[in-house]
Amino acid sequence: MTAGPIAFTLNGTPRTLPPGTSPTMTLLDWLRGPAGLTGTKEGCAEGDCGACTVVIEEADGARVPVNACLTLLGQVHGRSLRSVEGLRGRDGGPHPVQSALAEADATQCGFCTPGIVMTAWAHAREGGDVHEALAGNLCRCTGYRPIVEAFGALRDDDTPPAAPPSAPPTRLEAPGQVFHRPATLDALVALRAAHPDAWLLAGGTDLGLRVSERREVPAEVICLSDVPELRGLEPTAVGIRIGAAESYRRLLDACSADLAFLPLAGLLRRLGSRQIRGMGTLGGNLGTASPIGDALPPLIALGATLRLAGLDGTREMAVEDFLTGYRTNALLPGEVIRDVFIPRPPEAALFAAEKLSKRPDQDISTVGLSAVITMEGGRVAWARIALGGTGPRAARCAPAEEALTGQSWSREAVEAAASALEAAITPLSDWRGSAEYRRIAAGNLLRRLWHRQAEAA
Amino acid sequence: MDALPRHTGPGASLRQDSALKHATGEARFADDLPMPPSLLHAALVLSPVAHGRLAPIDLSPAFATPGVVAAIGPGDIPGRNDIAQPRRAQEHMLAEGLVEYWGQPLAIVVAETRDAALAAAAAVRPRIEPLRPVLSVEEALDAGSFLFPPMVMARGDAAAALAAAPRRLSGTFQANGQEHFYLEGQIALVVPGEDGELTVHSSTQNPTEVQVMVARVLGCDHNRISVQVRRMGGAFGGKESNASWVAACAAVAARRTGRPVKLRLGRKQDMAATGKRHPFLYRWQAGFDDTGRILALDATMAADGGHSVDLSGGVVFRSVTHGLNVIDVPDVTITGVACKTNTVSNTAFRGFGGPQGVLLMEDVTHGIARALGTTQEAVRERNLAGGENNAITPYGQALEGDLLRQVWAECRDGAEWDRRRAQVDAFNAGHEVVRRGLGSFLLAFGISFGIMSMNQAGALVHVYEDGSIRLNHGGTEMGQGLFIKIAQIVAGVFGVPVERVRITATSTAEVPNTAPTAASTGTDLNGWAAQIAASTIRTRMAEQAAADWGVTPDEVRFEEDEVFAGNHRTGFGELAHRCVQNRVSLSSTGFYKTPGIHWDPAAMKGEPFFYFSYGAAVAEVELDLLTGEHRLLRADMVQDCGRSLNPSVDRGQIEGAFVQGLGWLTCEELWWDAEGRLRTLGPSTYKIPGSRDVPPVFNVRLLEGAPARADTVFRSKAVGEPPLMLATAVWNALRDAAGADRLDLPATPERLLMAARAGRR
């Protein structure tokens, strides 16, 4: 693989960056610094406020808002981007989206506005719930009412995406840094074996913080996004197979289109924001193995499996076995996560994917509970109940499952299971919630399943 | 039909002057200004412990990082190492000898790049011998550790009246702090000039204080320091005093290196090192009768001031004077204290002690209502100031009981209180684990700075020969729409479209000795000053026209971009040109000071407020009893804006303030660990409201037909802070839903779950 310069399209114009440009510079720092484009703002540098939102223009016309603060230059190589400066109307004046927000009184101090404009421009094409679109953009002044109203009236401008430059997968180099973009699984596995300390970069929504906030300069990065085996999503009769480096955005689209996976879609809509889901990946969530990874409890409850690839080939493993402890997993040196298979819940099973957080949108879980419960002859045939935020790792709760199995689906049986759950978990106290709250709330999430069923009946 | 001329003067709903520039990204904030040649970047070394003895700091490790140009400790400050408010005890800009909070600035590192400065600052290892930190306001209160003597507002004999009251009740609760979370963090860019001059671009509400602090730490005359601010990316009080020390640090670095220096705090450093809304602890005892009439109250409101005074005096003053809010209590003692703790020094935040103060009577009336088996609304109405009760506050200023009743009645009716109360009760009867609640709130908020000398403002208006107008004044734009409102006032004076008025950056070089843009007074003060300046020029222009036309100046009218008298008529620009030709000055300052206000701090008596702003709100919530999750389903509010200068800007202030108050009272939680380290340092852990948290039914009304009775500019009223307090209705609604006696704030899902469980036991 040869070295080459970083190349991408910005606001419709191909850009080739000077040799030696750090591939791990954040897109935000580059825009505001060398590019001299200060319309994109830094509000938090942790991917939460959305002031730095820019849009990736996909070849299929999709507009993917992302946080420029978490996006590294090496990741946008070969892509087409648009920042607020690149948004203009047909007459060269303000774009209708910009005028709409200004005329709606949707700006006060204006610092969040460029990011909201970019989110709006993407939303005008992508559609969907306005609050879901806005979850990744904070405004401290307006109280959002005028923004929400303006969003409700946006129209797609029907402009085709700007083409990305021809930028073959390559090695991006800067003094003291190599940013690998392998294009095959074999190349990836070989690189991983050769560079065990390299950062494995999937979406970068977690790893990117080490650059944006902690200002780290990694020597070796292996970017996963060009590896075909790690991309793509395949819905089948038995479930969904998704590449480890495929975005949550694509998984959410697939789950939203499939009745059986609607509970998972509901959870994914609360995972980060559109900006985070545009970059973030299931592989990243699994690799990080955080006890509060949003996606982990439903994967465990559904009995998801993953395939790990290494020099010796591929092995398969259940997600619940893959997570071994607090931020640790079963990856062997030289291995990478290739893909994940999410089995379809059995027909007529109760499938729930619950999440508790301080704020409904774009917040990290205080507690997560997912359950798949099947009934036979009025009794629980089997139950898989998985928890996050209640111990060192996301895991099943066997005592609760046992308490339910063989019982009728009744208030008393659920109460017994919830009590068993409360007794079995070992949550911590932190800023998201006390141990006591987590314990009670986790049990109550289970109780709530019964109440909801009872109310629906 | 001819198009009517577009009305752009006072009362017109014009949009924020920079709205389109915000949307296109063209609006420049301090960090967006073109970088001056040879710019350096500064970073701060912050204390890693909350309390300890600090050895003289060794800055040599900083120089191991390539690109480092200077490292500055307290001994390198050329002037005074003091960022305290005037006439207050010294507060160090860089700690000396003692560190008193986690995140306290210890040193400044200056480098060619921001990354180098940050890396070098991180390499400095201060030696600190840890001392036990005091982290709870309760501990400081019980130990009597105060930042200044208690403020006691008293009327009658509360102790005797309590003893004689037929019924008594006591309570205690806490309201925690709030991070401003302005989207644009603290920043200053300092550019040295000739003869020791410095130009400071600061994101500040208080350019004059930046000038004073910079001059103080440099030991130079104020006339060498020029401070400019075109706009801030939000402030909310967080840039009233905290912006000053940030700019002062950058100024010391610029003086030391002789080069331009930018200091921009990243979000985590900003949240660690800058003050927040004061947390409060409340203890009260009330005496009342079976009709719900409150006869006596003895209350203590203890603010957590943090490690230093900063603006805590003003915050406690406002909390005490707003402690009764709209309620009349005949015999009352309210004691306000600012406790000293080893946390960041808490500071101004929209409402400035008012939001904390008005919580007191909500807890009291809620408690009494539960004790008597009646509603909080009934208890409030029974004790409402004015009418059958006394309208005079314990400090001696009268509330307008008729306006209070009008605002409440309009809000109550608009919210369909009776119908919805029944609806909520019916819903609750049919649901086991989901509860709805209804709550209300009524506000009287005093407008004026508590420090009398701050109630002044200046403006500078020029009319150029072509009839274009340049407007400058002491107020700063932080998104609140001040600039457009004042431009509307000036446009109104000259009878010209607002487009003729050029809005310019606030500058201490143009208008000196200004008050901060704070306390909701920005328009009241600066609007009058601009009106006076413009009127002075208009008078001169009218005299010129009168002389030209042989009429009296009184006959000259300025309307629709033209000037008229009898059959005479000329364009505004033509008259300006004619004035210049005839050597008439078309430039004027304007100066305004609020009339009639006075305060005796020893007696805690006086009439400190020019007028009161009134507002009312009704909120409906839904609460999940299993998890404590809750949603605000609907909010209705009526806010008194007098005769609004710009109804759409005012509506934006009301909505934004309400949602900010909602955040303070519900989801925004600052969390310190046992060592006094703030662990919620960014939006990933500190959750301000998102768009979904705004109520789907959000009815905002400005009180109509109620011009201010005080002589305010165009009879408008201030609107920046009061509506934040209307969110208090949500607290009451949540308590209604939870059936809880005590619900501390913020009412997170956890607190609600625990309160609901306690309430049901």
TrEMBL record, chain A:
Pfam families: CO_deh_flav_C (PF03450), FAD_binding_5 (PF00941), Fer2 (PF00111), Fer2_2 (PF01799)
FAD-binding PCMH-type domain ranges (all copies): 171-347
Keywords from the UniProt entry: FAD, Flavoprotein, Iron, Metal-binding, Oxidoreductase
A GO term, aspect molecular function: oxidoreductase activity
Gene3D superfamilies per UniProt: 3.10.20.30, 3.30.465.10, [2Fe-2S]-binding domain, CO dehydrogenase flavoprotein, C-terminal domain, Uridine Diphospho-n-acetylenolpyruvylglucosamine Reductase, domain 2
InterPro entries for the chain: 2Fe-2S-bd, 2Fe-2S-bd_dom_sf, 2Fe-2S_ferredoxin-like_sf, 2Fe-2S_ferredoxin-type, 2Fe2S_fd_BS, Ald_Oxase/xanthine_DH-like, Beta-grasp_dom_sf, CO_DH_flav_C
Boundaries of every 2Fe-2S ferredoxin-type domain copy: 4-87
Name under which the protein is recorded: FAD binding domain-containing protein
UniProt organism field: Roseomonas indoligenes
TrEMBL record, chain B:
Cited InterPro entries: Ald_Oxase/Xan_DH_a/b, Ald_Oxase/Xan_DH_a/b_sf, Ald_Oxase/xanthine_DH-like, AldOxase/xan_DH_MoCoBD1, AldOxase/xan_DH_MoCoBD2, AldOxase/xan_DH_Mopterin-bd_sf, Xanthine_DH_Mopterin-bd_su
Name of the protein in its database record: Xanthine dehydrogenase molybdopterin binding subunit
EC category name: oxidoreductase
One Gene Ontology MF term: molybdenum ion binding
Native source organism of the sequence: Roseomonas indoligenes
EC number: 1.17.1.4
Domain Aldehyde oxidase/xanthine dehydrogenase a/b hammerhead: 24-132
Domain of life: Bacteria
Cofactor(s) the protein requires to work: Mo-molybdopterin cytosine dinucleotide
UniProt KW keywords: Molybdenum, Oxidoreductase
Database matches in PANTHER family: ALDEHYDE OXIDASE 1-RELATED, XANTHINE DEHYDROGENASE
NCBIfam families associated with the record: xanthine_xdhB
Listed SMART domains: Ald_Xan_dh_C
